[in-house]
Write a structure and sequence with these properties.
The chain has about 425 residues and is α/β, with parallel strands linked by helices. The protein is about 25% helix and about 30% strand. The protein contains 10 helices and 22 strands. The protein has an 8-stranded parallel β-barrel with strand order 1-2-4-5-6-7-8-12. It has a 4-stranded antiparallel beta sheet with strand order 13-14-21-17, with no helix packed on it. Strands 18-19-16-22 form a 4-stranded antiparallel beta sheet, with no helix packed on it. Strand 13 and strand 14 form a beta hairpin.
Length: about 425
């Protein structure tokens, strides 16, 4: 690819610059938009992190082929017990897509003996994927090690690079925690590309993603790497449990939560990646491009069976930069079970998944109520209400029952409910 552009394109640029120099106010005002730097769309890559390619995974993959450029597919894992687990994708579906694929090797960050890392196994895996007809663009190492272990990790990458087919790129994921380390430069020098992960569970008040903090991390990372890089952004939610010491005791996303001994479910929080917030962040980094930033790697491919991920329609809207409209309303209906009892539901009528409202209040003078599915009965100066106890998203076009009201002999035309942010 010629970075200098074609001769006609260069002539157009020179012409535009010359026009901007004309000292006529009206002409300057006309051309000011043309002289400004347009936003550059970032490419969309995506992680397939599922261990099994179930029908919902295959269906979501097929749905997303038109707007995802490169697939980062979990290929193997090395855990702290030194077990090496191969994750086999749906070869037929993956090869039929004719799309570039990055095979991701996840190596547990707590692994003590980095000399035991399977260089030969990774080289064999790359060859095996090629034999299956995969267009293998890269091998990506996902190793969230402590900052103190970066030098050891660098030596491992150097050994892997020496044995890897030179036609296959070597990429790594990078953590913001590494930015203060002088060892980061040598580590990044071993990789052809890197992916900066800016979504993490640190504080329940901050959620999974803090756009201000993320923007600062991106700016700092751009100053450290001399190779192309991408940023990983979330499409999912997690249920996180903190222990009494303030540390994370368990995380439940696409797999069941594993809790430390003595930790109860009462200290858990639902953290959600908000589609509108993420979309606004993408618009910002496209408008103010950073050196070397080539694209986004979305974590992870959502499916219809994934309750904590975005819906596929929301996923498509965000990735294609389509207009986003979130709309949610409360609905009340007579219960079929008992006279005087009314079911309260939320209905999402926008084009994307909508955040659950903080409060749902009944206008009528009902004498009793209770909440379910993330809502609980509460009271304030205005009376009885259903209050959200955990944040979450309601998928576009879906309904969720959140509680009931007991309103005597009233009918549903006289019992109305409304949401409050």
């Amino acid at each position: 690819m010629n970075d200098g552009g074609s001769a006609p394109a260069r002539r157009q640029v020179r012409g535009a610059l010359a026009a901007c120099a004309v000292p006529l106010l009206v002409l300057v005002l006309t051309l000011v938009g043309a002289c400004g730097k347009p936003s550059t769309p970032l490419s969309n890559d995506a992680y397939i992190w599922q261990r099994k390619w179930t029908p919902p995974v295959t269906s979501a993959f097929e749905y997303s082929r038109g707007f995802v450029q490169t697939w980062h597919v979990l290929a193997a894992e090395k855990d702290t017990k030194n077990d090496w687990t191969i994750v086999s994708p749906d070869w037929t579906t993956l090869t039929a897509a004719h799309a570039p694929v990055t095979a991701v090797i996840r190596i547990e960050g707590q692994l003590d003996d980095l000399n035991a890392l399977p260089v030969a196994h990774i080289v064999e895996l790359a060859a095996d994927w090629k034999q299956h007809g995969i267009t293998l663009a890269a091998i990506e190492i996902d190793h969230d090690c402590a900052t103190s272990r970066l030098a050891v990790y660098t030596r491992f990458l150097a050994a892997l690079r020496a044995q890897l087919d030179p036609t296959v790129k070597l990429t790594i994921t990078a953590l913001p925690a590494w930015l203060d380390s002088s060892a980061l430069d040598a580590l990044l020098a071993q990789a052809d590309e890197s992916v900066l992960q800016v979504h993490a569970v640190m504080n329940p008040a901050q959620g999974l993603f803090d756009p201000t903090q993320a923007r600062a991390w991106l700016g700092a990372f751009a100053q450290r790497t001399k190779h192309p890089w991408r940023v990983a952004l979330p499409t999912y939610g997690s249920r996180v449990t903190w222990g009494d010491d303030g540390r994370v005791a368990g995380i439940e996303s696409e797999r069941p939560m594993l809790l430390a001994n003595g930790v109860t479910q009462d200290v858990s929080h639902e953290l959600v990646a908000q589609p509108e917030q993420i979309s606004a962040f993408v618009t910002q980094i496209e408008r103010h491009a950073l050196p070397g930033l080539k694209g986004i790697v979305w974590f992870r491919l959502p499916t219809d069976a994934d309750e904590r991920a975005w819906s596929l329609s929301t996923w498509r809207a965000v990735l294609t930069r389509a207009p986003l409209t979130a709309a949610i309303a409360a609905d009340v209906r007579k219960s079929a079970q008992q006279s005087g009892l009314f079911d309260v539901s939320l209905v999402s009528g926008g084009s994307i998944d909508a955040p659950l409202p903080a409060v749902v209040r009944a206008d009528s003078s009902c004498e009793a109520a209770d909440g379910i599915n993330g809502y609980a009965l509460d009271y304030d100066a205005r009376g009885m209400l259903l209050r959200r106890v955990q944040p979450g998203l309601l998928h576009a076009g879906m309904r969720r029952d959140i509680g009931w009201l007991r309103c005597g002999a009233a009918d549903n035309k006289k019992v109305s409910v409304h949401v409050e942010p």
